[in-house]
Structure to design on (118 residues):
């Protein structure tokens, strides 16, 4: 009997009850904690502000585009990148769409505008 138990352990044959338990648990909704202050929110804020500044600098100084084109392009592109990241989190990573992340993206865009453009 012991040899059979050891053989089953080494062969790693899954228990049907265990597999059923996994399937049952995977159908239950996940609960996510989306805090207002976290490392993720800091990254959303800082990346958005740096994207606004760097894209405006690239368009205005390096590619010599006028301000009427560079300003709205850098602001809207940065916002759309933030929205795209949240859609990616929802659809591909199967997590959740965080409106708090979008708020931090907007705060970063405004901060980047006043730091790098205004």
């Amino acid at each position: 009997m012991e040899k059979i138990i050891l053989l089953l352990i080494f062969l790693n044959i899954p228990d049907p009850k265990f597999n059923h338990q996994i399937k049952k648990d995977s159908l239950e909704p996940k609960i996510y904690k989306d805090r207002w202050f976290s490392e993720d929110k800091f990254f959303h804020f800082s990346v958005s502000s740096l994207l606004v500044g760097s894209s405006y600098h690239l368009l205005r100084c390096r590619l010599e585009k006028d301000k009427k084109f560079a300003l709205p392009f850098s602001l809207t592109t940065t916002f759309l990148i933030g929205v795209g990241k949240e859609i990616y989190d929802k659809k591909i990573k199967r997590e959740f769409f965080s409106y708090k992340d979008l708020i931090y993206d907007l705060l970063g865009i405004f901060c980047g505008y006043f730091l790098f453009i205004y």
Q: What stands out?
A: The radius of gyration is 24 Å. Residues 36-117 form one domain. The helical segments are 2-11, 16-27, 39-62, 67-91, 99-117. The longest helix spans residues 67-91.
